[in-house]
Design brief:
The protein has four helices and seven strands; from the N terminus they run βαβββαβββαα. By secondary structure, the chain is an alpha+beta fold. It has one domain (3-147): Nucleoside Triphosphate Pyrophosphohydrolase, CATH 3.90.79.10. Strands 1, 2, 3, 4, 5, 6 and 7 form a seven-stranded mixed beta sheet that branches. The longest helix has 13 residues, at 63-75. It is globular, with a radius of gyration of 15 Å. The termini are far apart. The mean pLDDT is 90.
Length: 151
């Protein structure tokens, strides 16, 4: 397949320090075992799915710049990029799609619902992994934990 036909996109596995160990206990998860972090997932009403924030790159846009732009557009949060995570490849609307991902720590911001993303949620890693719609997105949770040395 030529690179011309590939849909290029980028995103981040967005994380922050957990607000409280109590939230982990309520979920039956280990606060210490995952470093006390929460992951941000986005709900897209068009597909009725939960995923990591991501989106198509603009013409000539570098993937990391596109990932940071998409995270802010979809979640309202600026972020600090970290380690690159594995790219994901799949077929979307009959065309190959490649999504480049990075680990990213949330900075300042606030969510505002839109037509594209109507909800976000912050969850402990195991809960986030279970809520994600696509198995390819679940593997990114494991990659994040490994990149943060929490696996």
């Amino acid at each position: 397949m030529s690179a011309e036909g590939v849909i290029r996109a980028a995103g981040c596995v967005l994380w922050r320090r957990a607000r409280s160990p109590l939230a982990y206990r309520e979920l039956g998860e280990s606060y210490q075992g995952h470093g006390g972090i929460e992951l941000c997932l986005v709900h897209r009403p068009k597909y009725n799915d939960w995923s990591h924030p991501k989106g198509k790159l603009k013409q000539g846009e570098p993937p990391l710049a596109g990932a940071l732009r998409e995270v802010e557009e979809e979640t309202g949060y600026r972020c600090v990029p970290g380690a690159p995570l594995p790219s994901v490849h799949y077929i979307a609307q009959g065309r190959p799609k490649q999504v480049s991902y990075w680990a990213a720590e949330a900075a300042e911001g606030a969510f505002r619902p839109s037509r594209e993303v109507d909800r976000i949620c912050w969850l402990a890693p195991l809960s986030a992994r279970n809520l994600l719609t696509q198995s390819r997105d679940r593997r990114l949770v494991d990659a994040l934990l490994a990149a943060l040395h929490l696996a």
